[in-house]
């Protein structure tokens, strides 16, 4: 397919004209004048002025898609970690400098008001950020697309650190409204729960006709649209988020009878659907709410898609040819039986035809091999909330298992593995299997992850459908993760190699020869130093910790989880702390370790690891014997905006997950594109990053995925491993005995004992290799020319890890849309 041409940036208006428009927006849309306008008012007025220009592109693209009957992509994701949108939109429209001048003429600092824009609390980590990058790339590549999710009022919690512990607070990102969004009250759909199913009968027990589901609970899903601007305004696509509203806001009869709580019960239930991202599922109420959320947004999205399709084409049969619906992980997997229900019960389609259309329409991306993340629901819970869908799931399961049996190549255990219903123990509905069988394409997100999918969680389904699994290695948008977050490096690259990489990030490869140019390396180092100084100022202002920008900045920022092994990082820091104090005569490399990330509220060990990081930091940072050679900083409330400051300042990128457990990662790509060297295992996309940057420009250590699997099969070796490592055993002893927790000496005893007992995440097994790799880091850091040569080569060689490349592959291989 021919690539669509990149359009020139729209003609920029004069700054004076923009300034006039900002004043008009301030007066006529916000009811303020310059004497009383707050910084938030200036922010909103500026966004409104640019949003008006976006609308023209938005409507033009929508009209062209309709007139040309182009196939649309619909991306269903429970998370969209979009971050602040102002710089993204201004940059992609080519208006950043003109807006800067316009606001300066009004005595307003654009950087100051930009910092006031809240991060939309619509995601947790890599899954949601990937969805945001994909939306921007689809608009950049001129692919007509809608993203569908939930408009969480509070979303992911705001993290505060109190006495070293994580405290979860509501993220009130909508306090000042959201000037980017448009409420579409007319685009509202009724979503039902519970109730019963009426089945027509022919008198002999069969039910050939349409089934009628009569829910006893109903809510409204109301659409809120946010425009997503592509680079050079190639296209503006739509992120449509659903907000829950009651069908009947208040039951007046109950209210007037004095039952004020009961009168608002329906309103409260609807509100809960779009209140918080990932309610704690350690109890039944949390599990039920999460399933309700997943069905709520999946059903509303499918109703919207089908209504749009029928309105344009007058029939439903062409749906697979005109709509590609993509399931981002298992959260929207309930969309499979929901589409079947709509086709059969609302459009009178027989099961076989509906099943064929469903599979041709859906595609599914798997993001994890972790059993707890491959969602499953207790059958009684699913059947109570969605009785008609349970019937459809059983019908789908029967069709799939009969297909497997008829092939004659599967034994009973393999049939059980293929089944949508887990029968051993509590009967549960496997959402990963449901998404797999209901899609024509199932993709992993790195080469290693895709191969492991075939060998582990979907091994028997892969045997049944050997052509279904394919790989699409993740990518990141270079607009957000280079042009916007690292303007110094962007300017340096433009001066050195021209502007071609702005439109095609692969062209940044032209920087590669400059890794051997001493003058360029000095300029590159100066940009890195400026980014580090910015981060150092921020840490001093917010946390009161003074750090030296000349030190090596060692950064691990990601969701706190045992498989991501923040614990390995902390234990190595404890060992390093002991070594620095014991051997002050050695030439130690000054190092600042940054950690950041949120732990799920019900994940005890993850929250304990956060506390440990802060306890160790408190002791190390205050110890004069360390002489400032090691400092540890835990960055609270890690989010997209924090990442945009931390990543350009990083020298070393920690990607140290247990091999075989990280599907891909995208932080590893962002760090490399900004000139950080990776220390990591051969896990996820690290494998492919090493291939692109070269093994001499990355620090790889530890067990491979195969070696981890073999070690887990064998007898416990962790005690011998720990006792065989003096540094590790001393570090564990110090933590376990209360050196870092004098107020509660036993606080970490159980956590440390776990390393002796099973070491499932290979913290002890990989410690010596990790510590040795860190000393290799020290050696390379001492050779400044070698370090920055490798840093430049990382920037130059990771253009392939662009979400533009990933989306082109999706478009060609999965969605069948031109690009």
UniProtKB/TrEMBL annotation:
Cofactor(s) needed by this chain: pyridoxal 5'-phosphate
Family annotation (Pfam families): Phosphorylase
Record has Chaperone as a keyword: no
The keyword Nucleotide-binding is assigned to this record: no
Keyword terms: Allosteric enzyme, Carbohydrate metabolism, Cytoplasm, Glycosyltransferase, Pyridoxal phosphate, Transferase
InterPro entries on file: Glycg_phsphrylas, Glyco_trans_35, Pyridoxal_P_attach_site
Molecular-function GO terms, alphabetical: glycogen phosphorylase activity; pyridoxal phosphate binding
Location in the cell: Cytoplasm
GO biological process, one term: glycogen catabolic process
Top-level EC class as recorded in UniProt: transferase
Cross-referenced Gene3D superfamilies: Glycogen Phosphorylase B
PROSITE patterns linked: PHOSPHORYLASE
Chief location bin: cytoplasm
Residue numbers of N6-(pyridoxal phosphate)lysine PTMs: 670
Record EC number: 2.4.1.1
Cellular component GO terms held in the UniProt record: cytoplasm
Catalytic reaction equation(s): [(1->4)-alpha-D-glucosyl](n) + phosphate = [(1->4)-alpha-D-glucosyl](n-1) + alpha-D-glucose 1-phosphate
Family, as annotated: Belongs to the glycogen phosphorylase family.
Function: Phosphorylase is an important allosteric enzyme in carbohydrate metabolism. Enzymes from different sources differ in their regulatory mechanisms and in their natural substrates. However, all known phosphorylases share catalytic and structural properties.
Protein name: Alpha-1,4 glucan phosphorylase
Organism: Manganibacter manganicus
């Amino acid at each position: 397919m021919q690539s669509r041409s990149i359009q020139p940036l729209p003609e920029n208006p004069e700054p004076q004209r923009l300034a006039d428009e900002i004043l008009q927006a301030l007066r006529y849309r916000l009811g303020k004048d310059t004497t009383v306008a707050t910084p938030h008012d200036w922010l909103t007025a500026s966004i409104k002025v640019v949003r008006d220009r976006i609308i023209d592109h938005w409507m033009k693209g929508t009209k062209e898609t309709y007139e040309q009957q182009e196939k649309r992509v619909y991306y269903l994701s429970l998370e969209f970690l979009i971050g602040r949108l102002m710089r993204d939109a201004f940059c992609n429209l080519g208006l950043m400098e003109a807006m800067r001048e316009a606001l300066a003429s009004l005595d307003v600092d654009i950087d100051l008001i930009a910092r006031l824009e809240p991060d939309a609390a619509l995601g947790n980590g890599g899954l949601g950020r990937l969805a945001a990058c994909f939306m921007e790339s689809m608009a950049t590549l001129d692919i007509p697309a809608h993203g569908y999710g939930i408009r969480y009022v509070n979303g992911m919690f705001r993290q505060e650190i109190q006495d070293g512990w994580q405290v979860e607070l509501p993220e009130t990102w909508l306090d000042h409204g959201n000037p980017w969004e448009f409420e579409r009250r007319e685009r509202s759909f009724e979503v039902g729960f519970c109730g019963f199913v009426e089945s027509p009968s022919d008198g002999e027990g069969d039910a050939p006709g349409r089934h009628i589901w009569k829910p006893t609970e109903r809510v409204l899903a109301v659409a809120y649209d946010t425009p997503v601007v592509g680079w050079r305004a190639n296209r503006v696509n739509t992120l449509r988020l659903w907000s829950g509203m009651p069908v009947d806001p208040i039951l007046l009869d109950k209210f007037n009878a004095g039952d004020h709580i009961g009168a608002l019960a329906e309103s409260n239930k609807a509100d809960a659907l779009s209140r918080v991202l990932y309610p704690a599922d350690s109890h039944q109420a949390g599990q039920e709410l999460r399933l309700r959320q997943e069905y709520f947004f999946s059903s509303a999205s499918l109703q919207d898609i089908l209504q749009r399709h029928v309105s344009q084409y007058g029939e439903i049969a062409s749906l697979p040819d005109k709509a590609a619906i993509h399931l981002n992980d298992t959260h929207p997997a309930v969309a499979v039986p929901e589409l079947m229900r709509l086709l059969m019960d609302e459009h009178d389609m027989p099961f076989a035809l509906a099943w064929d259309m469903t599979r041709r329409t859906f595609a599914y991306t798997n993001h994890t091999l972790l059993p707890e993340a491959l969602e499953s629901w207790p059958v009684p819970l699913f059947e109570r909330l969605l009785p008609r869908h349970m019937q459809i799931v059983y019908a789908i399961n029967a069709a799939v298992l009969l297909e497997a049996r008829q092939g004659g190549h599967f034994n009973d255990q393999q049939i059980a593995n293929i089944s949508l219903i887990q029968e051993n123990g509590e009967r549960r509905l496997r959402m990963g299997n449901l998404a797999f069988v209901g899609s024509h394409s199932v993709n992993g997100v790195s080469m290693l992850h895709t191969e492991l999918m075939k060998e582990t969680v979907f091994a028997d389904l892969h045997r049944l459908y050997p052509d279904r699994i394919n790989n699409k290695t993740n990518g990141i948008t270079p607009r957000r993760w280079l042009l916007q977050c690292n303007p110094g490096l962007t300017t340096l690259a433009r001066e050195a190699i021209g502007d071609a990489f702005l439109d095609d990030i692969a062209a940044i490869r032209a920087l590669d020869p400059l890794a051997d140019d001493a003058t360029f390396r000095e300029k590159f180092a100066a940009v890195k130093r400026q980014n580090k100084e910015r981060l150092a100022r921020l840490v001093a202002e917010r946390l009161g910790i003074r750090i030296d920008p000349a030190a090596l900045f060692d950064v691990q920022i990601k969701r706190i989880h045992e498989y991501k092994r923040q614990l390995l990082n902390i234990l190595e820091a404890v060992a390093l702390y002991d070594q620095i104090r014991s051997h002050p005569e050695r030439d130690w490399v000054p190092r600042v370790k940054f950690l950041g990330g949120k732990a799920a509220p019900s994940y005890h060990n993850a929250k304990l690891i956060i506390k440990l990081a802060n306890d160790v930091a408190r002791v190390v940072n205050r110890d004069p014997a360390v002489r400032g050679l090691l400092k540890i900083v835990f960055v609270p409330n890690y989010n997209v905006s924090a990442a945009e400051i931390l990543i350009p300042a990083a020298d070393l990128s920690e990607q140290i997950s247990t091999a075989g457990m990280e599907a891909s990662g995208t932080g590893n790509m962002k760090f490399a594109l900004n000139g950080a060297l990776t220390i990591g295992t051969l896990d996820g996309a690290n494998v492919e990053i090493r291939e692109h940057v070269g093994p001499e420009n990355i620090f790889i250590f530890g067990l491979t995925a195969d070696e981890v699997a073999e070690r887990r099969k064998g007898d416990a070796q962790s005690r011998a491993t720990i006792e065989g490592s003096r540094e590790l055993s001393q570090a564990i002893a110090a933590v376990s005995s209360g050196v870092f927790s004098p107020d509660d000496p036993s606080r970490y005893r159980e956590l440390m004992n776990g390393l002796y007992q099973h070491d499932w995440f290979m913290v002890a097994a990989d410690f010596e290799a990790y510590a040795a790799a860190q000393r290799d880091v020290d050696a390379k850091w001492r050779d400044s020319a070698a370090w920055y040569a490798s840093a430049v080569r990382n920037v130059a060689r990771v253009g392939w890890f662009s979400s533009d490349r990933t989306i082109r592959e999706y478009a060609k291989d999965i969605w069948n849309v031109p690009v």
